[in-house]
Amino acid sequence: MRMLSFLSLLLALGVSCYAQSQPATKAIRTKIEGTELDRRMLFSRLKTHGLDHHMNFELAESDFDYRIVFSTGQGTTETTWGELNSSFASADVFDPAGTELFRFERKGRGRDEAACDAVAKEVIKRILKLNSLR
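The structure assignment produced for this chain is given below.
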C-alpha cells in the first residue's frame, strides 16, 4: 500500500512539473477577410499549425492583432508532361493600424487545401519573426 501511495505521489509531481515547463499559449486575435470557405479553411489551418508554436488563433471582427486578406485561385504549373491545373493562395497581412506587414503567394499546389496549408505555415513563421524583432 505504501508503494502505491509513493508511486501516486511521484506521478502527481511529474505531471505538475511537466505542466509548469510548458510555455503559455498566446492568443492571437485575427480578422480574416475573404470568401466564407477561404476564411474557414485558413482559420482551421492557423489553429492547427499555431498550436505547434504555442499560438492560439481566435477570430475577431474588432480589437484584432492582425488582419489577413486571403484568397485562393486556380492556375497552371509547367511539368515535364505539359501544363497541369494547380491551386494557389495569397495573403496580405496588416497590423491593427492598417500597416501592411507582409504579402506573399504560394503557387503550384495540387489542391486549394494544400495552398492554404502552405500560407498558414508561412503566416505563422512570419508572425514569429516579427515578434522576435520587436
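Interim note for the steering committee: The first strand starts at residue 26 and ends at 33. Residues 101 and 130 are 9 Å apart (CA to CA).
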